[in-house]
Design a protein that fits this description.
Elements (H helix, E strand, L loop, with lengths): L1 H8 L3 E2 L2 H6 L8 H6 L6 E3 L4 H14 L3 E4 L16 E4 L6 E5 L4 E4 L5 H8 L4 E3 L11 H7 L6 H4 L6 E7 L5 E5 L15 E11 L4 E7 L2 H13 L6 E5 L1 H6 L14 E7 L8 H10 L3 E2 L2 H9 L16 E7 L3 H8 L7 E7 L3 E7 L6 H17 L3 E2 L10 H5 L1 H14 L14 H16 L21
Parallel strand pairs: 2-4, 3-4
Antiparallel strand pairs: 1-2, 5-6, 6-10, 7-10, 8-9, 8-10, 11-13, 11-14, 12-13, 12-16, 15-17, 15-18, 16-17
Helix pairs in contact: 1-4
Length: 472
Amino acid sequence: MHSQLRALFADRAQFQQDELVRHGQAAGIPSGWATLLQTRPSAVVWPERTEEVVELVHLAAQEGFSLVPRGGATSPWGGALPVRGGVAVNFSRMNRVLDVDPIGQTVTVEPGAGWAPVEEALAPAGLALRLLPTSAPLGTVGGWVAEDGAGLGSYQYGYLHANVEAVQVVTGTGEILHLEGDQLRMVCGLEGITGLITRVTLKVAREAPLHVWALGYLNLDDLIRALHNVFDSDWPLWHVAFRNATASRELPLGANRNGAADDLHLLVLMSRHPEGDGLQASIEQLARATRGHLFGREQAFAEWEDRFAGLEPSLPIPGAWQSRLVLPRYGLAPLFADLADLPHPIALQGLAVQGGEVALHAVAPPGVTPRQAAKLLATLEDRVSRYGGHPYAIGLLKAHEAARILGPAQMRELVAWKRRYDPQHLLNPGKVLPSPGISWRVRAVLAWSRWLGGSPSAPAEREGGCPPRRAS
């Protein structure tokens, strides 16, 4: 296999141990987990063209090795981990912006494109991305399509899959497919198990001025009431986020840069509407009606400036100590009431999503033991499920819950697709669809985390700086 990969990729095929170790880790997954899950690939390749990906798939089918796509590897669900050896396919060299269409308001990029270069390419045409992942500084376009989910802008535009125009994939049979419309359900959020993404066309929007407001609440019930008022309004808001007082204290960012909101639950509103400044009177009325404190413009705008600092790509926390979930908005009040009896407070941040859902990011408090942290988050996940919620994504760690998250109809479609387009199960095995040879290892690691005291070793190092976390 090594000689054939060398013939295809020359020095873009690597077999050194340091590269294999690096490509066997992912952000948010403790290094000890990677060891137990046996995640080291046998080789790493960097394709530069779709044709190379096709040749690679044919070689994998001939030799019987698996292919694991890799973008920024910021997901804490293990989607980029090669749990059956094989070859890690690093798409960082396929990173070009291929086309900007001002008339159709789309941008077409290769999967390894970073979000900042895409924004830069759109600016001269007066366009902007509709939404951004919270992992934008490290993530890639193809990686987020493979993961799907909510981000900055999801209040107006929903989940990423609703903002994808088309995706080109190379299947496990080496076919090149152009997917659009309802076909996108067979690629978005499925971790590359249905095809290796080689091109993405995103819907974009006209650039408009940004307006930001931040409101602080002493009472969590008042914050939830304000959030429902926002959902029920027709205000032209782009992004709506919130965090409880525990999260405010743990992450001294945004409106709480100097500790001014340590004891406050925060609601953040952003508009990218041309007349967004006309919302000022309505938001002032919202603050009065819900007993909220409306921060000054400069303090509120700090929420935008720190938009990436306190979320996915930067918190150096083992995967067992944090959780991401989706919940219908009307489940928030009973959920928070249920969590009031926990022995330790959980830091919760949330993004409002078009259609009435919230995407939650929960972090166990510092100062508790790993076993206590795991128990707290297990309790949270159970109670979110009680109110109609589910895990935010599937990946490797939640593959055993795929049927519940996707539903029986999509599961049947997915199995039929794999039978037709990846009969040898070459593409990212063990992800989304549970695999008997892999699932037992995952369950063992999760059991270790929950019952035996957390991660068997320290978390893998992450790229980039980390914001300060306060001791409680």
